[in-house]
Amino acid sequence: MLTNKQKKTLRAMAQSQRAIMQVGKDGLGSNSVKTLADALEAHELVKITLLKTCPIDVNEAAAYLCAQANCELVQKIGKTLVFYRRSKKAKLEI
């Protein structure tokens, strides 16, 4: 579980990042979860966007991805979500 101070640090780091993944009309499936899990292992901090055509609500998507990819939601702004999960090599210092 992240503290508020850690989330603040991660939000600052995520501000300069570009979205690694986009979720569109196909919604969230096993491929989306696997892509997010792989990206989290590689980068630890991942930003994704939900397109206008995405059939699932932003809050539902955040809850689903957190549960399936075993990660934490750092920030939600509009249709942009930022997730964090410490990788085995612990790349980020928070």
TrEMBL record:
Which keywords does this chain's UniProt record carry?
A: RNA-binding
Q: Which InterPro entries match?
A: RNA-binding_CRM (IPR001890), RNA-binding_domain (IPR051925), YhbY-like_sf (IPR035920)
Can you give the residue ranges of the CRM domain? 1-94
> Coiled coil where?
none
- Keyword flag Transmembrane: no
Q: Write the protein's name.
A: YhbY family RNA-binding protein
Please indicate which superkingdom the organism of origin belongs to: Bacteria
A Pfam family cross-referenced in the UniProt record is CRS1_YhbY
Q: Which PROSITE patterns match?
A: CRM
Taxonomic source organism: Massilicoli timonensis
Q: Cite the SUPFAM superfamilies for this sequence.
A: YhbY-like
Q: Does the keyword S-adenosyl-L-methionine apply?
A: no
